[in-house]
Amino acid sequence: MHRPLAHDDPTTALLALILAGGRLAPRRRLLIDCGDAVSALAAGRARWQAAGLDRRQCQALLAPDADALAHARQWLAASPQHRLISLVDDAFPALLAHAPEPPLGLFVAGDADLLWQPMVAIVGSRSATPSGQAIAGNLARQLCARQLCVASGLAAGIDAAAHRASLQVAGNSVAVVGTGLDRCYPAGHRHMQDQLVQHGAVISEYAPGTPPRAGNFPARNRLLAGLSLAVIVVEAAQRSGAMITARLASEAGREVFAVPGSPLNPLSRGCNRLLRDGAGLLESIDDLLPTLPPLLRLLGTSLPGQALDPASADTLPPVLVSGPVLDETEQRQVWQALDLIGVDLDELGQRSGLTVARLSAILLDLELAGWALQTHGRWQRAPTPPSTTASIDAG
Amino acid sequence: MHRPLAHDDPTTALLALILAGGRLAPRRRLLIDCGDAVSALAAGRARWQAAGLDRRQCQALLAPDADALAHARQWLAASPQHRLISLVDDAFPALLAHAPEPPLGLFVAGDADLLWQPMVAIVGSRSATPSGQAIAGNLARQLCARQLCVASGLAAGIDAAAHRASLQVAGNSVAVVGTGLDRCYPAGHRHMQDQLVQHGAVISEYAPGTPPRAGNFPARNRLLAGLSLAVIVVEAAQRSGAMITARLASEAGREVFAVPGSPLNPLSRGCNRLLRDGAGLLESIDDLLPTLPPLLRLLGTSLPGQALDPASADTLPPVLVSGPVLDETEQRQVWQALDLIGVDLDELGQRSGLTVARLSAILLDLELAGWALQTHGRWQRAPTPPSTTASIDAG
Prior knowledge:
alpha/beta, Rossmann fold, 395 residues
């Protein structure tokens, strides 16, 4: 009789759970019920079966694939930029955690903090027209100019145009891929993937070593949808991955936008179909911004350690209606420099004209008073300031 | 003191009313209140003033412009295809009569019966792209294939493409113009106008001799909207005549459709704006057909001599749900050949395989039983057949 492996190391335990393969839902149930991967593996066969794991999965937990495990551990150790974030870890992005079917963990190469930034996905056809690629590029640049992160799938066509434009303007871009992060698909995008690792992030739910498999790409789309506040479809055939991403985004409660196109362009069919079905019509990012605050609030109220209040996610933060009344000039300056999305200290310094030291002190005041909040080193206006008429106690 | 001219001739009287110019509403009130133009002119100054006519208009009725009157009469006499149809005449198209701000009369060159046929307007930019013109042409051909009449404004760009395509497939097309029918604007469209007179109709509310005036073109748009069951906008700038036509159509309770276009095409702005504002997204005529039956019913129930029932215009005729049960094979054949829009006997003969004599007899039976109706020589299914389960008394 095998006995459960005593994986004291959380990473090894999570890898074993991921590498076990098969149906995801039972493994996720086990992980969540047990609280962490080490406990999940220690729980034993009876508990595994109770969570719904089949014989093959139980067998894989008893005797994990040593080579695959070693390969994944080796990849994780190869760079400080390589991480595996467990679904039950506070660092796991809140939006994805609250979307349907979250993965057991996320492999990240690059800046994992980006996963907490407000992200908008740009998706579309691999065989996009030059116009479609130009539109995707324009939209990506507009998102970056608003300090929103551009998410896409590293595929040819629209995806590549969106990532490329983000990199060109030194904006934030995240690629969600359907292979292990030591692979690259399509192979010709290796340089782009490297650039994204360096200046953004590339993520996957698949362990290093996982080759491109057709079946994994629709699953990749659900990650893209789950991580994003909104999905923009630019040129897509009626049946395409982009349409799947749009459907999944809609099911996850995210905003779906489509760029309209001429009936003479076959790649407009999917977008025009989405418009008929109620997607927002998008010509520029200005069409999307007014829809984001409720979802930004979702992001804001689901910070680690806080319970998500789904009911509150439907109302516009009052801050959009009128700013607070501050009695200190400097506080007012800083408040005005803050946005509803996170901004780093350097940018805030430039916006406010204050020194970083002074800025930090004022931000702390604003945070204590409930006017501002900080997430992963970026500051933003609190989605629900205490009152729009009260002044702040500067003490 | 002048005394009212004793115009015994209804045409002369109506021309005098039209040529009086100035505000339209008081003259229309006078015409409708008095029942016809002869009575309106005979009514005298006190009645004219009570209807709201100003001093200048009263003066013009007392002493009409003899030259303009003679010119208009001369034009009307020049061809049997030239007509002037009074608003209070049974031949005046019902849809336009029930739209806001109908004109006092319609000058028609060509086939006046076409004004009673179901009509769809195709409008758009004068500086349309080749793609836009191709789309307008495709849509016009699709409308003609469904035996719907194509209405437009004889302008350059989209209008011309729609008229041209209709003429090419020998379909029905009506041009609504903003000048007298002895003029042509733009001058280069003289040949197209002649073709439309010969194979369709060209109409105007302005008396022969009226030159192109910028102020008359928005008014022309309201006629186009009022005559049509639906308006399709293909490529339009945000501020343009086509957008005005769309607004007027919407105000008249007509369906408004817009063809989506790329954000990179400045002439898509207007269309995409309309889509945001709730216009139907149209890629082909199939998108429009399901919306027509309620309006066809409006056309059907407002035949001369019948009262319009606005309440009934909002429900779909039951005939769309299920056809009637006929116990005679030939009746069934004819019923199946009939459409919800008018079809002529030749076409019905081809569809049913019956001789015209036999067809006429059966159509008469169907008409008497309330299953079919005839308007201006074209047959169609009655919008509200007596019952979808009863059989017809063939007697």
